[in-house]
C-alpha cells in the first residue's frame, strides 16, 4: 500500500470541534500532539493554540488546522485535544514513505556532482 505522504511534503492536520448537536464550537483550549517514528521511540511535539507559535490556525468557529513537514519515513501519530468548554479528543495517523534521496535521520544526501 502506498504511503500517504513523502519526506518533506507538507501535511495539513485538521480538526473540527462541535457540541453534541453537531454545532461547531470554539473550545477553551486546543492542543495538537504529534509523535514521530524515530527508532528511539520518536520525538514528541506539543502545540497549543494561541501560544504565540502560530502553528495551530483557526479557520472559523470550531475549525482548526496545523501544517507539519515530516523529515523522516514511517508512521506518524497525532492527537487533537481540547479542554474546558468543548472538551474532546481524537487520534489519527499518517505514513511517510522513505526516499532514496534522504538518509534515515531525514538529512538529504549530498550532491555527488561537482
Describe the structure.
The protein has 114 residues and is mostly beta strands. The protein has one domain (5-97): Immunoglobulin-like (Sandwich). 0% of the residues lie in helices and 45% in strands. The chain is built from no helices and 8 strands. It has strands at 5-6, 11-16, 29-35, 44-48, 56-60, 63-68, 74-83, 88-97. Strands 1-8-7-3-4 form a 5-stranded mixed sheet, with no helix packed on it. The protein is elongated. The termini are far apart. 16% of the residues are buried. The model has no long low-confidence stretch (mean pLDDT 90).
List the helices and strands and how they pair.
Blueprint (H helix, E strand, L loop, with lengths): L4 E2 L4 E6 L12 E7 L8 E5 L7 E5 L2 E6 L5 E10 L4 E10 L17
Parallel strand pairs: 1-8
Antiparallel strand pairs: 2-6, 3-4, 3-7, 5-6, 7-8
What attributes characterize this protein structure?
mainly beta; Immunoglobulin-like; five-stranded mixed β-sheet
H-E order? EEEEEEEE
User: So what's the overall shape?
Assistant: elongated
Broad CATH class: Mainly Beta
For the record, the CATH architecture stands as Sandwich
- Spatial arrangement of strands, main beta sheet: 1-8-7-3-4
Mean pLDDT: 90
- Report the oligomer: single chain
Q: Quick one: biggest sheet?
A: 5 strands, mixed
CATH topology: Immunoglobulin-like
Short characterization:
By secondary structure, this protein is an all-beta fold. It has a single domain (5-97), classed as Immunoglobulins (Immunoglobulin-like, Sandwich), CATH 2.60.40.10.
Amino acid at each position: 500500500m502506498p504511503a500517504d505522504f513523502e519526506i518533506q511534503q507538507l501535511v495539513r492536520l485538521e480538526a473540527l470541534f462541535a457540541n453534541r448537536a453537531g454545532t461547531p464550537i470554539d473550545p477553551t483550549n486546543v492542543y495538537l500532539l504529534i509523535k514521530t517514528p524515530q527508532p528511539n521511540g520518536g520525538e514528541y511535539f506539543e502545540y497549543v493554540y494561541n501560544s504565540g507559535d502560530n502553528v495551530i490556525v483557526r479557520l472559523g468557529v470550531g475549525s482548526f488546522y496545523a501544517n507539519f513537514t515530516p523529515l523522516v519515513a514511517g508512521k506518524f501519530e497525532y492527537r487533537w485535544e481540547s479542554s474546558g468548554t468543548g472538551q474532546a479528543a481524537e487520534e489519527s495517523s499518517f505514513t511517510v514513505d522513505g526516499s532514496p534521496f534522504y538518509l534515515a535521520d531525514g538529512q538529504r544526501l549530498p550532491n555527488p556532482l561537482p
